[in-house]
Specification:
Elements (H helix, E strand, L loop, with lengths): L1 H51 L20 H13 L5
Length: about 90
């Protein structure tokens, strides 16, 4: 008779474990859905802010306030090579 009692107790423990497991899975999916919705809301807010901002960037180079001066660096490199390292330097 003890064996019958143990087996029914064991099966109820298994049912309790199954319910706990199902509840854990449900909670996990709900938390995952909440995180997804929060991330999408955040992305939409940032996208809207970005699209509505008409502020021109104030930083245009590596040093704030300095203007970039165009220099033909490829031509300068070519001239340097021809002046010093070519077979017949100038």
């Amino acid at each position: 008779m003890n064996s019958n009692f143990t087996s029914s107790s064991s099966s109820s423990d298994d049912d309790d474990d199954d319910e706990k497991y199902e509840r854990m899975i449900k909670d996990f999916h709900q938390q995952n859905q909440n995180l997804y919705q929060a991330a999408m809301s955040n992305n939409n807010l940032l996208y809207g802010w970005h699209m509505n901002s008409n502020i021109a960037p104030t930083h245009g180079g590596s040093v704030v306030g300095h203007k970039m001066v165009y220099r033909d660096r490829e031509m300068a490199d070519h001239n340097l090579f021809n002046d010093y390292f070519a077979e017949n330097p100038r």
